[in-house]
Each structure stands twice: as C-alpha cells, then as structure tokens.
What we know:
434 residues; alpha/beta; Ribosomal Protein S5, domain 2; 3 domains; 4-stranded mixed beta sheet; elongated
Amino acid sequence: xxxxxxxxxxxxxxxxxxxVSVEQTDHAPTIAIKSKVAALYGDSxxxxxxxxxTALDASDLSVTLDDNGALPYTLMARVExxxxxxxxxxxxVCLPDINPATQYATTRERLRRTRLYLPGNTPKFFVNAGxxxxxAIILDLEDSVAPDEKDAAQILVRxxxxxxxxxxxxxxxxxNPLPRGLDDARALIPHGVHTFLIPKVEDADxxxxxxxxxxxxxxxxxxxxxxxxxxxxxxxQNDAAPLRTLLAMTRPEIFLIPIIESARGVLRAFEIASAxxxxxxxxxxxxxYAKDIGAERTAEGRESxxxxxxxxxxxxxxxxxxxxxxxxxxxxxxxxxxxxxxxxALGFEGIGCLHPRQVQIAHAAFAPTPEEIERACRxxxxxxxxxxxxAGVVALDGKMIDAPVVERxxxxxxxxxxxxxxxxxxxxxxxxxx
Length: 434
C-alpha cells in the first residue's frame, strides 16, 4: 500500500499553480514549503494547508509544496486531490469561501455569441478570462484534461466556481461524456455553475439523465452533501453563514447545452434538443463529427454543411439557440471572421473560442450592420402601426411582412441593444390613429 501521493504541476514554465505531495510517515507531520513568495506569504500558505488538512481529517499527513504563484483556492484543490489519491475512501471536501463577485445568475435569453474554453486543470487561464468579456466561459473537464487528471480537475473547477470572478460571463462547465459526466455534475451543482455542456450526445436519454441529477442534487442542502467551508478565515467547518450562502446558490436554475458530435447525434438532434426544459441551446462539434463520418474538416466546411443545417433546424424547431463549433486556427483572424459570417448566415448565434483574442473578433462579426438595424426598426415600426390600425396586412416598401420576418427583426433589435448599437429604451413610435 502506497504512503505517498501528489497532485498539481511544477516546473519552470508553470504559473498560478503548485505541486503538492502528501505522505503518511511514522514521525510527527510536517509542512515543507518552496515558494518565491514564502517570505511574504509563507505563514498564510502554511495556514491554508493546515486548515485544508483539518477539513479533510488528514492532519496526520506530512506535506511538501512546490509553489509557483497558486492562489488559495488552487492550493486547497491540489491538497485535496493529493489526499484523496492517497486515501480514495475519503469523502470529505474542503471549500474556499465564496467570493461575492461570483454571485450572479444567468438567464435563458442571454447572448451566447462566444464561449471561451478554459482547460479545467490549468488555473493560470482562469483569473483573467472574464476580462476579455466573452458571453460565457467554459471550464472544461473533457478533452483538454488528461485522463489521469480528471479527478484533480473536477476539484479545481469546483473551487474556481466559488472563488474566481468571471466578470459576468455565464459560468459553463463541459462535463465528461456520460456516465462519468453525471458524477461531474453532482460534484459541481451546489457551487454556482450556470450551465452544463454535455459532450458527444447521441440520445435524448443522456439529457434526461442530466436533468434528473440536477433536480435531485438541487434539493439537497450543503449539509446533506457533506459540504463544509474550511478556509482559515472560517472559525468552524459548519458555520451557518456559508451554509446559508450555499443554500441560496442551489436555487437558481441550471441550464443544459447538448453538443452534437456524431452522425447518430445529428439524426436525433431534435429529440435531443427537446429532451428537457433546461436545454437552452444546441451546439455542434465539428472536429469529432468530421472524424465520425470519415471526412477531414476543411475551411470551406462542405463536409459538414448538411449537419450544421440540421442542427440549426432542430434547435429552432425545439425553441432553443443553435451554437456553432470552434475555429481552430487562433492566429487566422481573417479566417475567423469568414467562419463567423458563414455560421451567422446559416442561423447560428454563437461559436466556441479557443483563445481570448477570438472573442471580440467574433462579437464584431455577429453584430448586425447599421443597415440591418435600421431595417429591423422600420419593420417593427410598420408592424406596430398596422396593428394599432387594426390592419390584417402589413407591408413595407411594397413588400408583405409576415410574423417570422417581424420576429427576426425583433431579434436583431435585441442583439443591437445588447451590443449598445441601439438605445436600450428604443421602442416603435406608433402614431395616434383614433
């Protein structure tokens, strides 16, 4: 039986992370710290490690730390992961205090033009991600995390949801493919996640399974879940204040976004999008889709045109938002603009981003033009005036305007308002017809 385990990363190129080793020894436990900031923060680091061990009922273990600027929530996560690797039956958790800046909700109707992927086991990307103003950040537990680091990433993502200010971005987590993704969801539901992305969905039952887990876990109190806040600033593990805060965090609705990445998934897209009222969008993953059909993904996208069209139609039929894939060449800004324009022309309302520099380029490409905004306002104006007159037929510039055209115009206006290209207070001015 091993008496030592470790977690985290170390090396000259490591930033905002640490490596932690825990060991069961025959002598009194010790805490050894190697850190460039030990002179200033050594006592605080030591106190965080000691408090984490206490919360995990592991104060008998010796700890060796190699620190490269890890914030407290990361240090706590690495210690917890190492302890649980040494003692897999240890079901206790250690949570950082909740940062008030993390306490914001999302909505079904919000913009999801950009989803910025952040590898879930690499904390250096977390802190500044929200400053780039993506509509959403994705803390990824799937493809970007090595198989033997899935356990550590889940703990780190949980702590990040509680501690990191993402500046209003929707907090998404891409879980692992089911059934493992259900365990990811159970671990994260009480901690402020807004939306789960479910990868490689091929059956509506996968969405229903996630829905059931969310409904079940959200009913439990933090005490039921074995949760205790154990930051050094907390005097007792089960202090009432953090418990009340955690209970409040379980109340907001958690949404779902299935990702379709195979031929089978495309054929079942409508059933998948309709499987739960929690579904707010349907996304497509083109790399895995191209592989599944035996094709190579190309810039032109001819090999996936049918599938992308199917996703848009299925999403619209189910009343949810269609979301496009990622654009892989982060250095090709011209290619990214063309990719977004193509996605928008097909009916998609967002894409995935692999690098922060892609966010604002995508936002600009998704923005309606001044001409589109002007025409949308004229359409809504004409429709409201006709309705005020009791007219059954609406026309503009000699062309009939039907309900879908009006709804598309209203969508353009909502987007223009959100992007501050139209005053928030804009409303059609209906002349008095009495």
